[in-house]
Design brief:
Layout: E1 32-33, H1 45-54, H2 67-77, E2 84-87, H3 89-101, E3 107-111, H4 117-123, E4 128-132, E5 134-135, E6 138-139, H5 141-146, E7 152-158, H6 170-179, E8 185-189, H7 205-209, E9 214-219, E10 232-235, H8 238-247, H9 255-266, H10 268-291, E11 295-297, E12 303-307, H11 316-325, E13 328-329, E14 331-333, E15 338-345, H12 349-364
Parallel strand pairs: 1-13, 3-4, 3-7, 7-8, 8-9
Antiparallel strand pairs: 2-10, 5-6, 9-10, 11-12, 12-15, 14-15
The site of pyridoxal-5'-phosphate (PLP) has 14 residues, from α3.
């Protein structure tokens, strides 16, 4: 039968639209946004200056291939710029990868508490998301490999993962890659890699450089503090880069983002300050929240996942309402199948101390 109105392709209406973290706390005198893993230090001052300079030339189209930015990234990481594509946030690139490599009936694997953009991007192509269980809120390589079928075309792995903050060591990433058929595209999302301080971690660069079926996706939204500008990049084999370049928007990255991105990635000192701030306060928050009797998942990123008791008056939802009244905006993670946890971005010293104090009051039953 002919449809009586335009109908979206299979899968589209199965998507639960992404709900971003709250940014308001009605009634609170001051709002501390700790819900989207933005950096409390803001962007590099040179990035802000570069952004403002371009703001005087908004009539001009940007360089559609973002060459200067790709060259800057190449210099900083020692990569061939022709194997990089920039996008309007890594969201843009994750969707482009799905569009280029998935069709109706294909399967793409992600883990239970994996980033929500993966199933959204997958369903949008008509393909089926396949969920691999995790172990201790951490990706489980064997569980992922067990779910590979002849229909599998992609595997998404956030390393470290959001919202859990956990990671798998490079040996495990390599073992996962080794177990995948060569026609499966392995997408390593390293949005938080700059924060990781572990000797057994590698962001994915080495694996991309030595394989034909691995890409690494990176973002300027987190340590670089440019979430508002929407900027990300993907490093991959030449044949994948070629495919993405054919389907991306011809001007998918705007000029202010290109200019600010170059300044940001070249400001190593600012990134180091962010890393130092994060290491110090990540450890402090994990400790202090733990002392209150709440379980905190060990994180290597710039946020912590806090677990609440399954007890009326003490649940994550109630904690969220309590914190929001004080202007402390954390992230509910029910959509990530973690209904009784909250995710908190590492904030300024002031924000971090206020959250710990508020959690203590909440658990004490204060109003
Ligand atoms: C925040 C985040 C990103 C970045 O998304 P952008 O579109 O670049 O802002 C990518 N992947 C994960 C897992 C994230 O948490």
């Amino acid at each position: 039968m002919t449809a009586t109105r335009p109908e979206p392709r299979a899968g589209v209406l199965a998507i639960d639209a992404y709900v971003p973290g709250k940014s308001t706390a009605p009634g609170a005198a001051k709002v501390y946004k700790l819900s989207s893993n933005e950096t409390p230090l803001g962007p590099s001052p040179t990035a802000i200056k570069a952004y403002e300079t371009v703001g005087k030339h908004l009539q001009d189209y940007p360089d559609g291939s973002a060459s200067d930015l790709r060259e800057a990234i190449g210099r900083v990481y020692g990569l061939d710029p022709s194997r990089i594509v920039c996008g309007a946030g890594s969201d843009d690139l994750l969707n482009l990868l799905a569009r280029a490599y998935l069709s109706d009936g294909d399967e793409a694997i992600h883990t239970t508490h994996g980033f929500l953009v993966y199933p959204i991007a997958t369903l949008g192509t008509g393909a089926t998301p396949v969920v691999a269980p995790e172990k201790d809120l951490t990706a489980d390589v064997d569980a992922i490999l067990k779910r590979v079928t002849p229909k599998t075309r992609m595997v998404f792995l956030a390393n470290p993962n959001n919202p859990t903050g956990t990671y798998i060591p490079f040996d495990e990433v390599k073992r996962l890659h080794k177990g995948l058929p060569p026609n499966v595209l392995f997408v390593i999302d390293a949005a938080y890699s700059e924060y990781v301080q572990r000797n057994d971690y590698e962001s994915g660069i080495e694996l991309v450089a030595t394989s034909d079926n691995v890409v690494m996706v990176r973002t300027f939204s987190k340590i670089h503090g440019l979430a508002a500008l929407r900027l990300g990049w993907v490093y991959g084999p030449a044949h994948v880069i070629d495919a993405i370049n054919r389907i991306r928007g011809p001007f998918n990255v705007n000029a202010p983002a290109i200019a600010a991105g170059i300044a940001a990635i070249e400001d190593a000192a600012h990134q180091e300050r962010s890393r130092e701030h994060n290491s110090k306060w990540l450890a402090w928050l994990t400790d202090e929240i733990g002392k209150l009797g709440l379980k905190v998942t060990p994180s290597v990123a710039n946020f912590v996942l806090i677990h609440f008791p399954d007890q009326k008056g003490k649940t994550a939802k109630e904690a969220d309402a309590f914190l929001t009244k004080r202007g402390l905006v954390l992230r509910q993670v029910g959509a990530y199948k973690l209904p009784n946890a909250l995710r908190m971005s590492v904030g300024t010293e002031e924000a971090n101390r206020l959250v710990v104090k508020a959690l203590a009051d909440f658990l004490d039953g204060a109003k």
